[in-house]
Predict the structure.
Amino acid sequence: MSFNLLILASLGYVVLLFIVAFVAEDRAARGHSGWARSPWVYTLSLSVYCTAWTFYGAVGFAARSGLEFLTIYLGPTLVLVGWWWLLRKLVQIGKAQRITSIADLLSSRYGKSNLVGAIVTVLAVIGTTPYIALQLQSVSLSFAAFASNTPLGPLDVAKTTGIWVAIGLALFAILFGTRNLDVNERHHGVVTAIAVEAVVKLFALIAVGIFVVWGVADGAADIKNRIDASEIAQFNVDNPRWIGLTFLSAAAFICLPRMFQVLVVENEDENNLSIASWAFPLYLAAMSLFVVPIAVVGLELLPEGSNPDLFVLTIPLTQGADGLALLAFLGGFSSATSMVIVAALALATMVSNNMVMPLYLRAQNIGATVSGDVRAVVLVSRRLSIVAVLLLGYIYYAVSGGTVALSSIGLISFVGVAQVLPALIGGLFWRGGTRTGAALGLIVGFSIWMYTLLLPTLFADTNVYSSIVRDGLFGIEWLRPYALFGVTRLDPIVHSVFWTMLLNASAFIIASICSFPNPVERLQATTFVNVFDLAEETGGWRGAAIEAEDLLVMAQRIIGGRDAQRLFTQVARKQGKEGYLPDITPDFITVLERRLAGSVGAATAHAMMGQITGGSSVSVEELMAVADETAQMLEYSNQLEVKSAELERTARQLRNANEKLTALSVQKDAFLSQISHELRTPMTSIRAFSEILREGDVNGAERTRYADIIHDEARRLTRLLDDLLDLAVLENGQVSLNIENARLEQLINRAIDACVNSGSQMHIKRNRATEAIMLATDPDRLAQVFINLITNAQKYCDAPKPELRIKVADLGPSVQVDFIDNGSGIGVAQQAVIFEKFSRLTDHARAGGAGLGLAICREIVGKLGGTIEYLPGQDGAAFRVTLAKSLP
Amino acid sequence: MAGLPKTVFLQRDTYRRRRIGDAIKLLPIAGVVLFFMPLLLGTPEQPAQTSSLGLFIFFSWFALIGMSVLLVALFNRTPNTPREAEKPSAEDPLG
């Protein structure tokens, strides 16, 4: 096959890619980005994971160690199938915060910190540069494989190819990656071109696979026999290596800058992710289906010592299938170019947003409001970054000159970028992760990776480092790079994964726990961790006295005049205003900052906004003030609550009092009519009989009888008036008490004696032993209370065999005396009012009093420092008198 | 959840949707079990065969993909309740 044809084909392919990218970009610009946004293009774009290293290298990997190469695909499969855990959140955050790169993500999460962003950027550049070199090398090698019959030697071909490929890729990346400063940082042209490349490489690998299985071998059964007969027939996999590599590839799938670019930044729709969750594993499975057959056939067919990494290419070549070889070449070429383009783009974004722009802004200390288009600066810095990244990759390739070390660089690079994992996972799921923790974890992991993996590989041949590898740093044995702390059972890659992840995560966690985040960090932590819960971000900016015009000027410089004006008009219209200048609300500032972040990264956008708003982003003091306000409002509302409860209580009491008063008023009315009747009855008979006596014609016996009647009635009147007077005196507090020491037993005796003469049939039960208690009290008054209670019982107890129990209980400082009869008791409605004046139970005839007895009792007991109350639930009327043994 | 109180009883569809989400969450765990299974097979004297283990892994792989297809389709087909749908996107309010 002619070498010129090969060059022609690859040039034609490149032109095709340029056209595809151009058309896609053009359609997107005109708003027809329909199929570029489809889940299938998204899924295919994820195939930048499969680089030339996997396209060619997987076969080499399989030829060396059998099925182990699968781990590189199984890890990403697990991550994607488990999209619900991590990727879903990542994509959501990416959209909400307009994340532009993985460095931007971490910088934004950890308080829009430039430091964290810069560390991740450096890490990514160091981790990716060798990888880019690897791609250049693989393209050069594949060229060289065809070039055996050209006048130039293969090595010269390789060298010249390398530089031309690098230039071509830089051109492509600049043309379609930095054409404009997109607010969403999405590149439809690049993504579409990559999707095409994905199809080409899958098609190429499957074509070679089919050729090998059904062209060279005799179908599946034959291939199985050949596998069983080959040197990789047995599954000799080291357990830690299998687990470690699966973990590593999963981690790298999330953390690789280029993967983050296509997975998160270029994602248009969350639903695309759900489709990709099975479609991309399917792609990976298809990519790896024929790897082992190709490896086995290659081992059989090709002479000993041929490079297994090129089997995909050399098998068709030796079998004379030139067309297929060309296809395979294009597949490898696709893998290499797509990886390099996306990686360069992602790195350039990171370098320009996290390193160049902050430095530029600092150098331009005059402020962001001065005229001049920052967009130009950003674009130039991106383009220069792309060139620099590719140049770095080429230099690395040229210097290392395709040494063996290069082939192992894939996994080494994976370990490097995986250092981002603890800070990333911690940042997404743990609000406690801080900037200090993230920076420390990254630095620790990065240093250990350099020490245990990168440097030993790069400088294995130098005397200095080989002695370190053998004897450890400074001759300390447990510092040997491949056997840190004496761990010798792990192979170098897994050993490094183990130690870097362990120490990185530990440093991150411990430093996070020990440090204290600043307010912006805490705000961002909450926004990230609760991205599904928080409908809207709590404002990070306080609307200080900023002019909307200043903001417009700045926004125009970053996202372009038209976009900025549209944004401002939209906001203004939402606020109900005409024109271009909306009110500066914290919401608006947050939105604007996000838009800017989409172009220049979170930290830079924050810094620029900071300059305009006069650094009036949330300061600790402001946050504290807000917190204080909140606390005060909380307290105030608590007080209100207490007050309202109090009011409610008072209202309830008032209502009760009112009910009672109404009942009393009714009673009083009833009583007034009653008392007038009571007063009138004796008065009537007194007047009648005294008139008879005045007439004079009565005999002696009759006169005596009439005089007795008049006397009795007069006494009844006097008693009534006495009671009323007594009560009035008691109530007015004019009563004087004669306090003496008295035995309770004697008082009760006295009361009973005073009552028995009334001829009642009531049987009184008492326990004298309990009554031997001395009281300091007014004996006459207390006896009066007892008499009243006993006579009440005599009057009202309606049992056939009336009975009164007097129970005394000694409670230490006080005494309880219960009077319990066996009658029908007092109804609940009346219990509430029996102690009120003029209250009397229904049967007036039997009462014989004016209903003042219990009222008087209550007053007396109150004066004696005790209480009297009705005791419900005693099978009869029951009163309890509680008295202090000595007066206060 | 910041502002919205969590409800105890969900609409039937929402409930179903969440349980499908649970099933999707379990997939990677099933994947880990399946993919690490080869490590448990074979003896030092007689290691497992590459060909049969390869078939096993690819079989597991496709089974996992199949389950994922099924669950994602079910998930996307189950209607979302108004409440979850109403949730404003966290993106900018102009969207």
